[in-house]
Amino acid sequence: MGKTRDKTSFFDLKRDVVDRGLCTACGTCVGVCLFDAISIDYESDEPIPILTGECTECDMCYPACPGKNVPLRTLDKTFLGSERYFERDKIGIYTSCNRGYAMDEEIRLTSSSGGIVSSLLIFALEEKLIEGAILTGWRKDKPWRCKPYIATTKEEVMRGIRTGMMIVPNNALLAEAVTKKQMEKIAVVGLPCHIHGLRKLQMRGKPKKLVNAIQFCIGLFCASTYYWEGTKHLLQESGKIKNLEDIVAMDYRGGKPPGDMFVLTRDGKFRFVATKHDYVWHLLGSASYKRDRCLMCVDFSAELADISCGDVFQRIEDKPGPFVATVARTETGEGLLQMATEKGYIHLEHHDPDMIPSSGMGWEAKKHAGVYRWLERSRYGWPVPDYEYEISESPLPRDLKFPG
Ligand SMILES: Cc1cc2nc3c(=O)[nH]c(=O)nc-3n(C[C@H](O)[C@H](O)[C@H](O)COP(=O)(O)OP(=O)(O)OC[C@H]3O[C@@H](n4cnc5c(N)ncnc54)[C@H](O)[C@@H]3O)c2cc1C
Ligand code: SF4
Ligand code: SF4
Question: Which of 19, 317, 369, 392 is most buried by a 10 A CB count?
């Protein structure tokens, strides 16, 4: 018999999460390790945490990990102040629902869906509410892959615009920002699973230095991320790019909104790869390049973030768009939106929250298909994440709702 331990280690994390296919690749385990023992292996096709230093069994990574356990009920109560009713709270608990865009025309027209996320970060940096923001950007060495980075200026924030449909371990830079770069106030942008990791570590209250530094988090709606294999296939099959080393820049959402996929190659040519509709619906989405862990995820609208942002795919009568659906959930989120509006960084107007479930396929993927898959997998004893509530078999009505 091995000795009994009351503290968890990276080996527990590897055994219970990574080796059971439950790792979301959010990077939280790397970001909370103050001993620099865990790294992300960026060379494998899917980023994965690996032990590169000595694990001191300090009990930081395992409790913060959202791969196996996301106590939604407790997290709701802790951060949003109430308990959700699944039939009613279709987009989680929130305080206001708006749609909006960046007042800076360049940001609005070059961003993913209207530039609210980038504008809020730029506002927070310029007003010195934060010293840095953790974002996703293109890699310099392999400009067809993404990596997290820390932005401290408007120009650096704008480098993160229109980046990855792949998973990027943003939370891996938490310790880098706070302990190495000595930042006392940071913001984090992430998908729902990144936000789950952040909230778990904030709820636990340690490492204290990290917890104190996180000023706010902005969550992105997420239908799924996709295996790199899917994008590689798309580049080679549709884009006819045989050698990825020929790519010098990539864009998942170029041209007119909602944006199509383009690459710039070494010969100076801009090459069209696929329309957003084609790559989302016919290749990445329906042809199942969705990451396996994403298929068991039940959070579409970043239900625990201070502010959650997503596309408004519906056409808004008489308004050209693009618009970002912008959901505030906390006092911090409300305050930030109000200040950024007053200072002229963003425009906001009321958005009917019932339009969110019918915008694109993400809500259906999470709240019905994801739930059903979770139940099926449980039936066969396959690994599933624990969400701390009884997953109900009856689908939530999507109530398709369109404006006008
Ligand atoms: C993988 C993925 C799936 C999405 N799925 C949906 C969906 O199904 N339905 C929907 O309505 N919206 C979805 N979104 C959100 C949407 O694409 C926009 O990000 C959101 O509307 C904010 O738009 P914006 O113009 O304000 O953002 P911007 O101002 O352009 O800023 C976007 C920010 O997102 C960061 N980012 C980019 N890729 C990633 C990533 N992989 N991980 C973490 N951060 C990243 C960038 O660094 C940047 O800071 C998804 C986003 C991603 C990254
Ligand atoms: S914290 Fe995130 S990256 Fe680390 S094992 Fe858990 S899910 Fe994976
Ligand atoms: S679907 Fe869920 S697990 Fe997958 S990237 Fe999105 S938020 Fe993370």
Answer: 369
